[in-house]
Amino acid sequence: MSSVTLIILISLVLGVAGGVIMHRADFCLAGAIRDIFLFRSSPLLPSLVLLIALNIVLIEVARLAGWVTYDLPSSLFGLPSLTTFAGGLFFGIGMVLAGGCVVGVLYKFGAGSFAALIAIAGMLIGSVVYVSVHPYWTVLAQQTRLSEAATLAQLLGVNQTVLMALVVLLLLYLVVRWHRQGLLVRPSFVGGYLQPRTAAVLLAFITLVSFAIVGMPLGITTSYSKAGAYFAQLFAPGWIASQEFLQLRGFSYYSPVAETVLNAGPGPYFDGLSLVQFPLIGGIVLGAFFSSVLMKKFTIHWKVPIIQLAAALSGGILMGMASRMSPACNVWHLLGGIPLLSLQSALFVIGLFPGAWIGTRLLTRYVVRV
Amino acid sequence: MSAAPANTVEVDARGFVCPSSLLVALRELNNHKKELRNGDIRVVFLIDNHESTNRICDAVKSMGYQFEITEALNCYSVAIFKNRSTKDGYI
Q: Which of A146, A342, B23, B60 has the smallest C-beta neighbourhood within 10 Å, fewest atoms?
């Protein structure tokens, strides 16, 4: 089997597993942050914090064992800049309006949500819209760079492993507290539900496998940009060919399966990211589809209030743009960058909170009046 | 003995964007609070998402209502009501 086929297969398997797990636990990263503002209590937050703590431990142990290698700043996580905070803010608004993040809408679409499909279309549109903003955004990113350090350990000049141990202790303290308050286990009244804490453990291992075997954390949004560019090429091939952003192939990572460095970019061509992300996207949708069919709950409802579809579309467009501004999505930053103590990811996640707050205000004022 | 309310208010929240089904459910429960408390009606929600079903049931439990989940075709039907006898203090 060629290494390309193997990478595609591994990504597909990771996607299917992720799709099943996220669907059964309804592990919605957008909801975990949104509910802090919407309901003043977030049922998923304890499991999300558990997932991040486990990711720090697993990835660091893997690094010390030599299974994972990275050296920041790199294509994976760059230097912190205020534009990433702005990206996080826009992303936060978008994920609340769309009813899920870039991955959340995939598993919801797989389970038959028409609104999620509209949000996905919005993300493709948003990615293409960003292309015209890109030349100015790069300049802004350079002008608002905050530090030459890529990680918190580099910034503080301390040992990465020691700092990680401290962060893990702090996060685990929170998890234990929630556990004592009975908040780690969710009440369930239906069959087939997967407890989010179990999902957190499984997703932590999926992230580790992705990092160790595929060579990078889970991420998918560059492929939304690619897919958007493929569509746009049908209508405006001249414009697509003239856009510098779509010609870039500046993303590179070491692929342990191919035993070589693979290059990639956001344009309409097949490259080192396509063979990971497209199978991952397809896998998540397929996994959620199988999962909902097995629960006998797969169904497509077209009759969705138009205001909800409009919110899904605008949320999708915002997420599509914000993912390129950041320059990655929430899954990449939350499950990949935060565990490496990346400052860029920290800025993105800090931005998510005010964004989710604004999104919640818009949601309860214009979409569902309460 | 319980006496289930005869009148039913049905709310179809299938296909709703998350968390609209939950918000709509909470709004409808609030709108029909009086009739529900008196045991005059039962509110039935049609929901296609299992976690929304869990969260609605969890919320109504803390509000002091009772619920009954029926697996309908490709969705959950959640009936929310208050027994008249419960109200009168016989249980």
A: A146
Residues A313-355: pLDDT tens digits? 999 999 999 999 999 999 999 999 999 999 999 999 999 999 9
pLDDT range class, residue B3, cuts 50, 70, 90: low
**For the residues A156-160, what does the mean pLDDT come to?**
97
Q: Which tens digit of pLDDT belongs to each residue from A30-53?
A: 999 999 999 999 999 999 999 999
Q: How far is B6 from chain A (nearest CA, A)?
A: 24
Residues in CB range of A123: below 8 A, 6 or more apart: A102, A105, A221, A224, A228, A316, A317, A319, A320, A323
- The beta-carbon neighbor of A301 closest among B14, B26, B67 is B14
Tokens of B44: 């039935």
The token duo for A286 is 């397929």
**What would the DSSP string read from start to end of A155-220?**
HHT--HHHHHHHHHHHHHHHHHHHHHTT-SSPP--STTPPPHHHHHHHHHHHHHHIIIIISS----
The answer to whether residues A88 and A351 touch, using CB atoms and an 8 Å cutoff, is yes
**How do A260-264 and B41-47 pair as beta strands?**
unpaired
Across the interface, whether the CB atoms of B26 and A303 are under 8 A apart is answered no
Angle at CA of residue A79, ends A77 and A84, nearest 5°: 85
**A interface with B, Cβ–Cβ below 8 Å:** 25-26, 28, 31, 34-35, 38, 43, 98-100, 108, 111-116, 186-190, 192-193, 295-305, 308-309, 311-312, 364, 367-370
The distance of A32 to chain B (nearest Cα, Å) reads: 11
Which of B45, B51, B68 is best to mutate for the A interface (most A CBs within 10 A)?
B51
Q: Which chain A positions have a beta carbon within 8 Å of B51's beta carbon? A: 25-26, 193
∠ Cα A96 A289 A283 (to 5°): 85
Q: Per-residue confidence at B91, pLDDT binned at 50, 70, 90?
A: very low
| Nearest-CA distance A35 → chain B (Å) | 9
pLDDT band at B18 (very low <50, low <70, confident <90, very high): confident
Kindly tell me if the per-residue pLDDT of A91 is higher than 70. Answer: yes
User: Taking a C-beta distance cutoff of 8 angstroms, is the pair A151, A342 a contact?
Assistant: yes
The reported pTM is 0.95
Q: Do B17 and A35 touch (CB under 8 A)?
A: no
